[in-house]
């Protein structure tokens, strides 16, 4: 029987490997799955890989890459080998994310009300007011239970010594949770016995927790509030996720044209007439949510929605204006927020970050561009980045010119050697770089984080970019119960 040869697994130097300690000693959490793989033939594993591809194809699990203005729909690449996180590691991650979200939520309430953090000179006023996602329309707008962040996807990476760092906070309309759920469903088909044997904790409660939180946010005291998921429509890159979450929660999937505002209340058009809407889980960006307040050309949102929101007649999840808290230039102040609002030491570290709007930091970054990753403060999906170690001198010079046009719009971070995890590629296990996006749900009863998340993988050898739009894939994330 032709089985996997683990001796051919080439660890990347100066990099934390999720499966191996130095000198190819297996970490304890991987013992059971490796024993299983050693008893499987390469042919069996190839069949499992092919089955996973067919399942993704048949269920339409796709994402859209936008290149040169064209949307190209692709099947989301899936690696069959799970990424395994110990019980102790997860306890630390969970505690750190809860601490971070408490501070970020207090920051959003403060920055849209009393602005104590600006008055006390913890964060410069110029940084806040220059943020394109700071919405003056949210000033003094009270949100239910003072919760701004109902759903968060916090991106974590590991450096060469195993330390977890927060790479970025996704607090607007975080995506990818449907892939976490589908990855687990497919793993159940591929390795039905392994999950209970390894005591892997479940992630399938996510839709139920989200639905319970949405119900609790209804401004009307009715037994059965009307909840809708507002999507930009089928041409959006995350439309598969919108349909999946609406189906799993049993709520209506709507587009802007399905809703109307009358007397500062939101209604859904139905075959039996108008039905008042209490809670909107929106996947439409702030700029497009209400053409009377934001982009007047938007056909994705609902005219008058912000007036109904300000009146307290509808709850919007996540709150509008959250982008000021996940702006990449504001990100560097989150540890200060934790100390300021909670009087605690941050548990999860930030990646060292240089704001190019600061002349001294910009000068340092310009001298060390080849060691840096440069990002636009309000881009996502891996777009608009410069990987200094892989860029040519000409690319660096061109990027400097872009920075000089608007330095506030850029930050720089040292290149982090992302941890590697085993992937099944070309009939053998090979290390590839990974990150982790756990999903947190915030409701009146507190913060819930399902034990797992979306592990994204840089499938190209040597690549540090895990985004699906840049050629990345994903794998199931196992959190062990003990």
TrEMBL record:
Transmembrane segments: none annotated. SUPFAM superfamilies: Glutathione synthetase ATP-binding domain-like. InterPro entries: ATP-dep_Glu-Cys_Ligase-2, CP_ATPgrasp_2, UCP005522. Residues 82-458 form the Circularly permuted ATP-grasp type domain. This is Uncharacterized conserved protein, circularly permuted ATPgrasp superfamily. It comes from Chitinophaga arvensicola.
């Amino acid at each position: 029987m032709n089985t996997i040869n683990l001796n051919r697994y080439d660890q990347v130097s100066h990099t934390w490997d999720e499966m191996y300690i130095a000198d190819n000693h297996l970490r304890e959490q991987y013992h059971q799955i490796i024993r299983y793989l050693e008893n499987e033939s390469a042919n069996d594993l190839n069949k499992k890989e092919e089955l996973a591809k067919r399942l993704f194809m048949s269920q339409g699990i796709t994402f859209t890459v936008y290149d040169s203005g064209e949307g190209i729909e692709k099947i989301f690449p899936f690696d069959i080998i799970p990424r395994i996180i110990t019980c102790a590691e997860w306890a630390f991650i969970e505690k750190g994310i809860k601490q971070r979200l408490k501070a970020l939520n207090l920051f959003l309430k403060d920055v849209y009300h009393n602005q104590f953090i600006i008055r006390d000179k913890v964060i410069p006023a110029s940084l806040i007011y220059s943020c394109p996602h700071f919405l003056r329309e949210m000033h003094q707008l009270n949100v239910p239970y003072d919760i701004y962040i109902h759903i968060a996807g916090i991106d974590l990476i590991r450096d060469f010594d195993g330390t977890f760092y927060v790479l970025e906070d996704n607090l607007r309309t975080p995506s990818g949770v449907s892939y976490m759920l589908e990855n687990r469903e497919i793993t159940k088909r591929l390795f039905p016995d392994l999950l209970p044997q390894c005591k892997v904790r479940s992630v399938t409660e996510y839709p139920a927790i989200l639905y319970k939180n949405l119900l609790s946010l209804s401004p009307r005291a009715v037994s059965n509030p009307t909840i809708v998921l507002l999507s930009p429509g089928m041409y959006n890159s995350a439309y598969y996720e919108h349909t999946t979450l609406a189906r799993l929660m049993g709520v209506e999937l709507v587009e802007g044209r399905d809703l109307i505002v009358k007397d500062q209340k939101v209604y859904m058009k139905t075959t039996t007439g108008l039905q008042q809407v209490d809670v909107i889980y929106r996947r439409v960006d702030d700029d497009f949510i209400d053409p009377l307040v934001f982009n007047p050309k938007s056909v994705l949102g609902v005219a008058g929605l912000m007036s109904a929101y300000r009146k307290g007649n509808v709850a919007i999840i996540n709150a509008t204006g959250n982008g000021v808290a996940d702006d990449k230039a504001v990100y560097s102040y989150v540890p200060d927020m934790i100390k300021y609002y909670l009087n605690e030491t941050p548990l999860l570290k930030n990646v060292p970050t240089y704001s190019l709007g600061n002349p001294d930091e910009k000068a340092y970054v310009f001298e060390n561009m080849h060691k840096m990753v440069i990002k636009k403060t309000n881009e996502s999906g891996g777009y608009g980045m410069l990987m200094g170690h892989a860029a040519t001198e000409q690319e660096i010079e061109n990027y400097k010119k872009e920075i000089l046009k608007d330095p506030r719009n850029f930050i720089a971070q040292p290149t982090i050697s992302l941890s590697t995890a085993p992937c099944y590629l070309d009939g053998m296990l090979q290390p590839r770089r990974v990150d982790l996006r756990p999903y947190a749900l915030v409701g009146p009863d507190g913060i819930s984080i399902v034990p797992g998340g979306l592990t994204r993988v840089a499938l190209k050898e040597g690549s540090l970019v895990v985004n699906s739009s840049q050629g990345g894939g994903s794998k199931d994330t196992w959190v062990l119960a003990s």
